[in-house]
Amino acid sequence: MTAYLDNSATTKPCIECADAVANMLLNNWGNPSSLHNLGINAMKEIITARSVIADSLSVSSEEIIFTSGGTEANNLALFGAVKARKRLGKRIVTTAVEHESVLQSAQELEKQGFEVIYLKPDATGNITKEQLFDVVNKETILVSMMYINNEVGTIMPVDALKRAVKKADSPALIHIDCVQAYGKVSINAKKLGADLISVSAHKIHGPKGIGALYINKEANLTDQNFAQSFGGEQEKRIRPGTESSPLIAGFSAAVRALSNINEQKKLINGLNIYAREQLSKIDGIRFNNNENASPYIINIYIPTFMRSQTILQELSSNYNVYVSNGSACAKGKKSHVLNAMGLDGETIDKSIRISFCRYNTKEEIDLFVNAIKDLIKNHPLEKI
Question: What distance in Å separates the CA atoms of residue 107 and residue 110, rounded to the nearest whole number?
Answer without folding.
Answer: 5
